[in-house]
Amino acid sequence: MTPDHTKQELTPTAETVLNRRYYLKDDDGQPVETWETLCHRVADGVALGVGGSGVGQEANIADLQEDFFRLIYHLDFLPNSPCLMNAGTDLGQLSACFVLPIEDSMDGIFTAIRNGALVHKTGGGTGYSFSRLRSKNAAVRSTQGVASGPLSFAAVFDVATETIKQGGKRRGANMGVLRIDHPDIMDFICAKEDQNKFNNFNFSVAITDAFMTAVEEGTEYELIEPATSAVIASLDARSVFDKIIDLAWHNGEPGVLFIDAANRANMTPQLGDFEATNPCGEQWLLPYESCNLGSINLANFVQDGQVDYERLGQVTRTATVFLDKVIDCNRFPIPEIEKMTLKTRKIGLGIMGLHDMLIQMAIPYGSEEGRTVASEVMQFIRDAAEERSMLLAQEKGTFPAYDPAINQYSPRRNAALTSIQPTGTVSMIADCASGCEPYFSIVMVKHVMDGDRLIMVNKYFEQVARREGFFSEQLMSKVADSGTVIGHEEIPAQWQEVFRTAQDVRPEDHIRMQGVLQQSGVDSSISKTINLPNSATREEVKLCYLLGYQLECKGLTVYRDGSRDSQVLNAGGVPASQQTAVVSCDGMVKKNLPDTLNAKRYRLKDHEQKSVYIIVCFDENEKPMEVFAKFPFDNRIDLKDKSTMWTTTCRLVSLALRFNIPASEIIKQLDRSSGHMLDLPAQLSKLFKSFMAGTQHGFASVCPECSGQLIFEEGCETCHQCGYSKCS
């Protein structure tokens, strides 16, 4: 690859994300990097092996530095966030995902909690299987007592995660997995029905082929006690499957992991079986394994409507070398992870901008042609990566666990090569669609501080609309309000199909895209969300899961639009005297409050430094239900007038809360009404945003950092305006 010093332009959104999350900062919190210097830091750190247990320097180190720099700087390939943040720094932890074992003992459980804390501290996410833990009420011989079960310990993991920020930037993320044949499986399936619990976990059920056969045949299946391996009970498979479907329809959890399909593709079965994945599900890893990830930006490889395979091959081979070298310069959180990772040397080379590529080729994402092209490209990347890994094996040796008698494939440097991971913030830097997902929206509205609407149009859509003569500000506003290009007569039918977004693509076509990518060129797994309209039925969710299993997907996440936007009321277990009834009023639902509510008082200062109090009352689910404002006692006329205005505002906001109006709409109106140093709308808006930053899932549709809209994509809630992600 020859040097290319063309200046790379970034979008304002990309610069916002880099400033917030990636650029190194001085003691005052001010960035001390630019995109160019960041790319040099990462390229040099990986090429030189800075910070890790490297195996020596190549003779062509200067060429590697240049190649790695151009690869990243020109947005052809971006490594995962920990690598962008930490390469070339003292922290030096460059991996994104880990799986830690949980042994069935108090020592094993709390060792896993400790190890997870160390991983989270350095910026990684963790996957745990709770399947080894004995079931609730099972005998504990050492204490003559009974076990409390996997869920009780999952709660301890959740609390530990809550207190430790990833790399000092955010809380860690976890995947919690339980096998379908564990005796406590029904408790696990229902654990996140209440959206205020286990907020630092994604939960997925590890589903076996035997269970799916029982579902198909309408028979019972066996529950096995982990401590004894004995069959202790059986359940009706269809009833259990229907409960999984019901909860997935309810709020998207639990997800499903097809564990037998994953283990059939296990590249090193001699080392053990897969038990769990990383938080977003794309990396099946053995206990103590880690994986460093990176994604090729397919948006950059279309020339004259065709895929530029020659350049794609060059970039793939260079990216494979980059990710392999990351392993050698990595600083691992604990020795066990370093030992296991160096045994298998797994990398996760993925893609982003798939939808961008198809748009430039005028191919609809949900079409058979779209799936064919995606499959061919992914297989090409897989083949090119394997070719380079085999050459690396000749140069440096195979991964140490390689055994030709067991591993029935050609000698190579890396046990696994490809996956398709979430690309959230890195795809915002690259200005492309996330991972293998279609765009979530083509025209977006951003509400700025003065209450005006800023229309943000997809660059490809604007190019086509201007070229074909149907662009207008009025049309863009209509598309933004409707959330879709479908049904607007000004837009030609061809382009309506090409620009179908995640909500417009049929669920079946989402799953079929995941299926062809999995079968064609993905060693590990795929992080993808099957988007469903709010009107989707439970039966449609069931068909999604069945089709995913038939297509040999290794896991599946569905999300019904809006299913997490409001807290479902559940009065079960609450004394009748304390229950909050729901009454009907002109077709709307209003929450009737009890005589006693918990409350918090917030003290503010006005411009004269006098105290002003805002009191917020919460229901039994810790969701705000009422707000009050109280001024200091004063006979001044201007304060009396202002107090009256504040009281009226509080009553209206309280009424909106009790009618379950989405917090995003409440905040939007409060922000539009703000404008003074100390006015109630601004202060209430600030409070509600602070609630969202915690665990108030009734407000999950709004970003806790910038008040943008959160979308559920790639298995996680993500903001496309500032890059906030709950999971990564």
Structure, explained:
- There is one protein chain.
- With 728 residues, this protein is an alpha+beta fold.
- 39% of the residues lie in helices and 18% in strands.
- It contains 23 helices and 29 strands.
- Strands 1, 2, 3, 8, 9, 12, 15, 18, 21 and 22 form a 10-stranded mixed β-sheet that branches. A 3-stranded antiparallel β-sheet has the order 25-26-27. Strands 4-5 form a two-stranded antiparallel ribbon.
- A hairpin with a 2-residue loop joins strand 16 and strand 17 (306-307).
- The two termini are 32 Å apart.
- Residues 52-56, 566-587 and 693-700 have low confidence and may be disordered.
Give the low-pLDDT segments.
52-56, 566-587, 693-700
How far do the termini sit from each other?
A: 32 Å
Q: Which range best describes the helical content: under 10%, 10-25%, 25-40%, 40-55%, 55-70% or over 70%? A: 25-40%
Beta-strand residue percentage:
15-25%
CA gyration radius, whole angstroms? 26 Å
Instruction: Assign an overall shape.
Output: globular
Oligomer: single chain
Number of strands: 29
| Count of alpha and pi helical runs | 23
Q: What's the average pLDDT?
A: 86
Report the structural category: alpha+beta
- Main beta-sheet strand count, sense and barrel state: 10 strands, mixed
